[in-house]
Amino acid sequence: MGAGREHKARGALLADLARRLGASAVEARSLPLGDVLWVWRTGSGEAEQEVLAGWIIERKTFGDLSGSIVDGRYDEQKIRLLEAPGMDGVIYLIEGAGPLFGVTAADDEQHRGGGRGFGQRLLARSLPPATLSTTAVHTQLISGFHVVHTTSTPHSVTVLVAMHEAICHVGSPGRREGGAVPYRDFAERTQKSCHARVFEAFGRMLRVVPSCGPEATEALVDEFQTPQALAAAFRDSSDTDLLLRLKARARGGRAPVSAAALAACRELFAA
């Protein structure tokens, strides 16, 4: 979460959860991926094992979401979440007092204006509400994740408590087909590796390309994985062939990368 106020906010959230669920149900732990993860403990003593309950939450404030889109972490995190083992569902919990879905043009204009100069907007690295709204919709409809909007930390706590109770009602995943995934396997497979860092760097490179938004970046990184692979594809294929290739892999049959974005990528990576 970063330093200062973010650490205090995390501490307050954990304290509220422990108060409402009981201290034994809440544990502060450094996770390789996500912000909230449910695990079941089975056995006892040396035979005790932790297994995934199947749900993970990535929690972001409006500011966190905006910053992660700008610097490329948003795309890298989504790819790792898509590849995480043992997940029945991924939830993006987006926390902020303003509107998220259905943002109006007036809201967007107010964000861009408001008496703030260009330098102030640049230093804040804050994206307009319409961009965050579009990102949330893409996360839900294109990536297949659940998106929950809360207005404050207490509201987030209420959602997490309800989620915890629902998971407890379902019970241990050991009875499900395929069994449960041990937490140790999850941690080993989702920790950042050299390969993940290449993904992240590649995603950040693509995000500075004109017309290459989050959806296009995700599609290109997922398909080619490294700048070298993308450059090789440009050498061996036409833009038309690559657009058809990307469209064939896309969910819903809609091309996630525009011709303009691909042409800009060709200029950068195949020059």
Automatic annotation (TrEMBL):
It comes from the Eukaryota. SUPFAM superfamilies: Restriction endonuclease-like. Signal peptide: none annotated. Pfam families: ERCC4. Its EC number is 3.1.22.-. Its cofactor is Mg(2+). InterPro entries: EME1/EME2_C, ERCC4_domain, Mus81, Restrct_endonuc-II-like, XPF_nuclease_Mus81. Keywords: DNA damage, DNA recombination, DNA repair, Endonuclease, Hydrolase, Magnesium, Metal-binding, Nuclease, Nucleus. The keyword Iron-sulfur does not apply. Interacts with EME1. Interacts with EME1 to form a DNA structure-specific endonuclease with substrate preference for branched DNA structures with a 5'-end at the branch nick. Typical substrates include 3'-flap structures, D-loops, replication forks and nicked Holliday junctions. May be required in mitosis for the processing of stalled or collapsed replication fork intermediates. May be required in meiosis for the repair of meiosis-specific double strand breaks subsequent to single-end invasion (SEI). Belongs to the XPF family. This is Crossover junction endonuclease MUS81. It comes from Prorocentrum cordatum. The lineage of its organism: Eukaryota, Sar, Alveolata, Dinophyceae, Prorocentrales.
